[in-house]
Amino acid sequence: MPDLTELLERGYLIVPAFLDAGLVQELQLAIDLRDSRGEFRAAAVGAGVARTVRPSVRGDRIQWLDRPQGPAESQLLERLETLRLALNEQGGLGVFDLECHYAMYPPGARYARHLDRSAAGAERIVSVVLYLNPQWQDSDGGQLRLYSNPVVEVAPCGGTLVLFMSESLEHEVLETRAERRSLTGWYRRRARQLNG
Ligand code: OGA
Ligand code: MN
After folding, report:
1. Does any ligand 1 atom lie closer than 6 A to the CB of residue 111?
2. What is the CA(7)–ligand 1 centre distance, in A?
């Protein structure tokens, strides 16, 4: 497991090759299978009655990962569970749960600058992104831009893991020129713990 000091001190952490190439390949197949079953839906923005699909703001399609289908997804969720325990042991973050979805950005899609924690989702503590693109080229674009100081850009290369604090770090997905696949999730604390 990675050393999480940088996440705690600086607000984000980037770990190249967190997943090996074989697992990235298998997860790509798992995504294709789910997509062929019509499981992906256009992602919406906003909350409550204002919740709408607005591709100029957010152009990906997502599929929530509630239950693993097959050994690759089981392995993925085990790795993310080990990471959850490390967040608690190394950082004392008290995160009890992970909600996550696959995301597919078709060419031309982006996700405008935003924060992951809305008023409705105050229990999101740490955001996790894992990239599932085995052959990413710089010219494919689609970088994750983190509005830290200084600003950092991460190419969505297969196996790369990014962790950041959900409450404080604004970020954006730059327009992609190739189909871009990822898993995005949030380690959550119980709302009750935040409210005392
Ligand atoms: C998100 C998000 C970043 C990425 O889904 O909220 O910011 O690099 N994703 O896919
Ligand atoms: Mn986000």
Report:
1. yes
2. 17
Encoded tokens for 103: 């995301």
CA atoms within 13 A on the CB side of 189: 19
The alpha carbon of 70 and the centre of ligand 1 are apart by a number of angstroms equal to: 24
Please name each of the domains of the chain with its CATH number: 5-45+52-195 (2.60.120.620)
Q: Which long-range contacts (CB under 8 A, 24 or more apart) does 25-31 make?
A: 25/134, 26/71, 26/72, 27/72, 27/73, 27/76, 27/132, 27/183, 28/132, 28/134, 28/181, 29/72, 30/69, 30/70, 30/72, 30/73, 31/63, 31/102, 31/104, 31/132, 31/181
pLDDT band, very low/low/confident/very high, at 190 (cuts 50, 70, 90) = confident
Which residue's C-alpha comes closest to atom 1 of ligand 1? 184
C-beta of residue 97 within 8 angstroms of C-beta of residue 187? yes
**Rounded to two decimals, what is the model's pTM?**
0.94
Residue type, 51: R
* Centroid of ligand 1 to alpha carbon of 22 (angstroms): 23
Q: Which tens digits make up the pLDDT trace of 89-105?
A: 999 999 999 999 999 99
Residue reference for tokens 């997502």:
62
CA of 101, closest atom in ligand 1: 5
Q: Is the pLDDT of residue 49 over 80?
A: yes
Ligand 1 atom nearest to 114, measured from its CA: 7
29 alpha carbon – ligand 2 mean position (Å): 24
